[in-house]
Amino acid sequence: MATNGVHPLEALMRKRIAVLDGAMGTMIQARKLAEADYRGHRFRDWRGKDLKGSLELLNLTQPNVIEEIHSDYFNAGADIVETNTFSGTTIGLNDFLFQGEPKSGRKDQEFFQRVIDDPTLRSLVHEINCQGSRIARHAADRAANETGQQRFVGGSMGPLPVAASISPDVNDPAFRAVSFDQLRQTYFDQATALLEGGVDLLIVETVFDTLNGKAALFAIADAFAETGRSVPLMISGTVIDKSGRNLSGQTVEAFLVSIAHAHPLILGLNCSLGPDEMEPFIEELSRIAPFYLAAYPNAGLPDPLSPTGFPETAESFGPKVTAWVTNGWLNIVGGCCGTTPDHIRVIANAVRDCKPRVVELRNPDVMPVIPSKVEESRGKKH
After folding, report:
1. Contact 171/187 with Cβ under 8 angstroms?
2. pLDDT at 361
């Protein structure tokens, strides 16, 4: 519910730093669930494919486990938790839940058209996202009732195992496994279900291919129109190397320009290479972004010898991301792969009295003016 035209989450971000949760996958993997746990009673006779590793299916088969993880993050000080729906699309779950196989020997647009049109898969995806939203909503409302502090649910819309901009076949660079319209449809199904489940905002995250991300943004606009309900939007990209580019080759500034038409309430970076490598790109976005800014990096680069699979402990990770807050760069901070409630607790305690990044009030009917490096350098020269 908005207050004086301002969404409660925006009101919170004007007042103080908001804290996002940490990794869902890390916490699930720590429970060492077996194939039977993923199947539960409902899918015990599922044929053809193993279901272990389909984290989103646990919304249906192990809802208590998912709600417990959400509650652990709220207890650690998170203001926002993300639904367990990161890969909760028809395309994202096809390896587990679609019984068909490619006719041409490789997954192509004909194959993925069958995936997104499959009524059984679409029904499951709808249920997974609705249930994931309701699980998180229940945990958020319980935490709010216990503490008297409003908590928020972000509907997680992650990337897909395919990219619209890039061929998966190095021998056929013109090949595209999916079309833009197919991506738009798979994201539309997810967005409408998340809205039905009661999320407070939608989070298009870990955008490695900007064209995939734009398909999600168009799908969300369709979902708002179809359902008659709209919520704030958060868009979070990811960089894949120290040059600060995503997989489709864009710098963070180019990414910002590409998605500005959607007028997100929040822009962010997540996942990526860890806090050390992400820092210069967070600093750059803080200088040019006309939106509230979020950062939730991985706990360093993957390390199979570490207990969580990532090297940064709560004690080493917390001070690094807290420094971005004290520098005045952020409005939301949290963690991605390899982070746990312990990581979030350290962050929440550290940023409690920090001032949030100041964002000028924006007219949503006007495209934001994003200063370029060239313009800024000219200004300095003159």
Report:
1. no
2. 54
